[in-house]
Task: inverse folding
């Protein structure tokens, strides 16, 4: 099969959808003439013109709100945040407008908008450029939150997100844009809200999403060498969460580790732990464990980066602890 | 929804394209070499009998509807935050007569008059205030969040200034579609202090969006007077910083508001972008139902009541002999009937079923909500 980069998969998704539906437009900082801060939208200005690929000033609150207004009036905007750290400037319009208008209007104004861009840390960028807000957005009813972990998923999920009639937060990663993977030439869509078992196994379930799926899969490969068979589940979206796939897996493996790039308090892993203890209490042979980031802002030095993030070693160590290996 | 109870027909918010008033219908067929300034001048002082009778009826409905609302609030039939528009009616009435039915309206939480003037029935608005399922937002919005897609009313919004970028976006979508609709985006003097306003003004000018920003300067943001929030007392000056055509307008008169909005709408339809109108007005009542308004003097309120917009229109109708006492009586009765019937309608409508809590949250019909 054809191999392309994650950023190319995203570009294909947007371009294919924009060719199909003239109501779709892309707006954000540096998306047009600069070809995207991370080159996701490379060439799109040339193909679609400045009416549909729109450079904005650095005014996240303003252009997020303008995007929502555009969506209220029948179009389907894609709003790119240079990174989701900067979406905090716009969060009022995401939470108070995009997520609320359909309900407040009694079902008259749905908001078909995609807010997309990179989430999470990307090396030594310091505290303000290294944050993951998946759980913040996932907390809010009215939104959907999608976090694809590879090029194939990125394309199929972004196409679905663009066609979705509700507001979708679509979170990518600076550290994944160059990742390569198999993406077929033919069109396909991936539904939002369905987890994907990326590797099946019998001894332990490992759940993650987004960039940290790489840690999960590498750890599973390490564990395989030690005869521990891990089932690895990619949530793909964290609102809604496909609890059933996780619970079903835990009923088989009886053990669960959740990996996540997020501060621990009120994280996605906390939520999944609750649901699993409630629905599979009798199946658990060990406490559910979560591996999050450190409960701190991320400092600049390389030693901090290593200490902050979930690591393969930590997953392997905890997996052995709870399988009593 | 019993829309038929709503008898009032907005006389001037016309369906016809390019017809902001009868006069302008004629002006639009005038060759282009007549300058914009001349056109605007020609449009002045040319209001018809229908304009005045329409304004009177429309404003009287707003006034009587809200007087009844205040009563019902006292009786605890209406709850929550509830903000009255009494005193400010000419701002909405003068706007509506200058724009078309396919134009879009968006405002803040002080939205009863805007909703009524867009043509939402008194029944549907009153039922919404009661939280009934027959309300214009199915009981999900309440006083602050009236909406009607059918009437191009894009809502009442509760975050001060939050509707400003939304209004620009609505206009941007119309620009994208290539029609010549305009969006009128209302906000208060307090909202003029929000960052969202500045970001939006900048982009609206940059992209020449067909939006009219109407700052309803009623002198106060809750208990804080304009003087206590800024050194720039002339709010319209904010627009000048973005080279946006901006002016202040007497908001106690329908005529001045109409002229200003008419000019702004011409500009927007012509592709020349946004306008900021600082419309100076006054609310007679407190900020919301719970505000006794102790931060201002009785004399100040009385000064403004002397310029009451409804009385001013009435005086013109009388002096120009557009109608007699009998007509005023008829209108008063007609509106009383509309208002009382809207209360009956609201009283007799059911609250939404509790199961409706899960509807209209997502457009997707089978969204898997978490139950426990
Ligand atoms: C972001 C935000 N901050 C504070 C409030 C509380 N609040 C509601 S109305 C209001 C005053 C707004 O005044 P103004 O914009 O002049 O409008 P007016 O009430 O006079 O129509 C305040 C502070 C709010 N709703 N939203
Ligand atoms: Mg005010």
Result:
């Amino acid at each position: 099969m054809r191999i392309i980069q994650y950023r190319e998969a995203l570009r294909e998704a947007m371009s294919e959808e924009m060719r199909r539906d003239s109501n779709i437009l892309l707006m954000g900082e540096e998306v047009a003439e600069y070809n995207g801060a991370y080159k996701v939208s490379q060439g799109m200005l040339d193909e679609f013109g400045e009416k549909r690929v729109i450079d904005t000033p650095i005014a996240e609150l303003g252009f997020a709100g303008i995007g929502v207004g555009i969506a209220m009036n029948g179009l389907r905007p894609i709003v790119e945040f240079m990174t989701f750290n900067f979406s905090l400037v716009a969060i009022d319009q995401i939470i108070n407008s995009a997520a609320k208008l359909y309900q407040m209007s009694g079902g008259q104004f749905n908001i078909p908008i995609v807010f997309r861009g990179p989430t999470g840390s990307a090396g030594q960028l310091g505290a303000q450029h290294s944050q993951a807000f998946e759980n913040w957005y996932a907390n809010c009813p009215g939104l959907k939150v999608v976090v694809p972990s590879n090029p194939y998923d990125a394309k199929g999920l972004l196409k679905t997100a663009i066609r979705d009639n509700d507001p979708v937060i679509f979170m990518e990663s600076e550290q994944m844009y160059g990742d390569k993977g198999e993406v077929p030439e033919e069109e396909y869509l991936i539904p939002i809200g369905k987890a994907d078992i990326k590797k099946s196994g019998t001894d332990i379930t490992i759940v993650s999403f987004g960039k940290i799926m790489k840690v999960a899969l590498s750890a599973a490969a390490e564990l395989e060498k030690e005869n521990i068979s891990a089932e690895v589940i990619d949530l793909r979206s964290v609102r809604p969460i496909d609890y059933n796939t996780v619970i079903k897996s835990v009923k088989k493996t009886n053990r669960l580790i959740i990996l996540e790039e997020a501060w621990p308090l009120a994280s996605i892993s906390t939520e999944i732990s609750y649901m699993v203890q409630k629905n599979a209490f009798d199946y658990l042979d060990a406490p559910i464990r979560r591996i999050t980031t450190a409960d701190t802002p991320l400092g600049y030095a390389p030693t901090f980066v290593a200490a902050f993030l979930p690591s393969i070693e930590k997953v392997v160590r905890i997996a052995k602890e709870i399988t009593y290996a | 929804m019993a829309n038929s109870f709503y008898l009032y027909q907005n006389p001037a918010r016309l369906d016809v394209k390019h017809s902001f008033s009868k006069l302008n219908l004629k002006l639009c067929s005038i060759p282009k070499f007549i300058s914009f300034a001349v056109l605007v001048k020609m449009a002045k002082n040319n209001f018809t009998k229908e304009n005045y009778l329409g304004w009177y009826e429309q404003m009287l409905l707003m006034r009587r509807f809200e007087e009844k609302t205040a009563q019902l609030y006292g009786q605890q039939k209406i709850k929550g935050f509830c903000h009255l528009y009494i005193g400010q009616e000419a701002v909405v009435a003068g706007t509506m007569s200058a724009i078309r039915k396919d134009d879009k309206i968006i405002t803040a939480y002080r939205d009863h008059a805007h909703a009524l003037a867009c043509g939402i029935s008194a029944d549907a608005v009153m039922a919404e205030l009661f939280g009934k399922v027959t309300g214009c937002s199915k009981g999900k919005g309440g006083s602050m969040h009236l909406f009607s897609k059918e009437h191009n009313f894009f809502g009442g919004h509760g975050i001060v200034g939050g509707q400003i970028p939304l209004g620009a976006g609505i206009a941007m979508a119309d620009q994208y579609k290539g029609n010549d609709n305009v969006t009128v985006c209302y906000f208060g003097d307090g909202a003029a202090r929000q960052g969202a306003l500045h970001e939006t003004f900048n982009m609206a000018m940059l992209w020449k969006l067909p939006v009219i920003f109407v700052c309803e300067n009623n002198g106060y943001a809750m208990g804080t007077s304009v003087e206590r929030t800024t050194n720039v007392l002339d709010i319209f000056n904010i627009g000048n910083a973005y080279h946006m055509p901006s002016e202040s307008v007497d908001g106690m008169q329908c005529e001045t508001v109409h002229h200003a909005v008419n000019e702004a709408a011409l500009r927007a339809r012509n592709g020349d972008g946004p306008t900021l109108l600082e419309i100076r007005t006054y609310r007679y009542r407190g900020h919301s139902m719970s505000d006794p308004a102790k931060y201002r003097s009785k004399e100040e309120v009385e000064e403004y009541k002397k310029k009451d917009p409804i009385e001013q229109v009435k005086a013109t109708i009388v002096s120009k002999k557009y109608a007699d006492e009998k007509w005023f009586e008829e209108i008063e009765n007609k509106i009383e009937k509309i208002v009382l019937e809207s209360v009956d309608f609201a009283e007799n409508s059911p609250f939404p079923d509790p199961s409706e809590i899960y509807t209209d949250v997502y457009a997707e019909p089978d969204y898997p909500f978490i139950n426990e």
Remarks:
- The radius of gyration of chain B is 20 Å.
- The first strand of chain B starts at residue 104 and ends at 108.
